[in-house]
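tool=predict chain=A
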Amino acid sequence: MARSRRESGVAVIGLGRFGKSLALELEATGTEVLGIDADRRVVESLSGRLTHVVVADSTDEEAMRQLAVGEIDRVVIGVGTDLEASILSASVALGLGVRDVWAKAISKAHARILTQIGVHHVVRPEHDMGKRVAHLVRGRMLDYIEIDEDYAFVKTSPPSSLWGKPLGDTGIRTQLGVTVVGVKRAGAEFTYATADTVLEQGDLVVVSGTAQAVERFSELS
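tool=predict ok
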């Protein structure tokens, strides 16, 4: 059976900086968005920019039921600073049977409570961005993305010790604990790296491994 547009959409509850940015980005990529906020001024400012945007109390189960939030597969709780409202809103969404609940947390304790009540995905935007920028500031990395506890991808320049020979002959995995997954030549696009790929001066590489290993790799010259 084909899924309805509503079921394939996303409800964003709390349209502050995080929620608003997320909702507008989803809308721009063609996703139907139901925006919900208790502040009428916020809702009015987004009228016509989101598929649907309404004034409602997201901690009120009956109000959320009337908006059919339980029929939407994915709900994002963007409420952050009001911990009680955040936790109650998440609890209401879960109670209505939403299959995939995301929630913003502003602290480790907040994240733990959201996880304990059953939220499927907890994000800490400020914390995660701070960690990312710290890694970029410390070394020669051009980009850093941590995708799991202590596992990351980085974009950086390869050290001169790897130039001019096939990656399969460098022993990079066993000696440095990282894997080169992509390479970009000047003026070209990124492409997959293989054991036969030969790195040159001026190349950029995407490398995966533990946070400690990729950081060590980015500091080699």
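Residues 59 and 89 are 5 Å apart (CA to CA). The longest strand covers residues 178-184.
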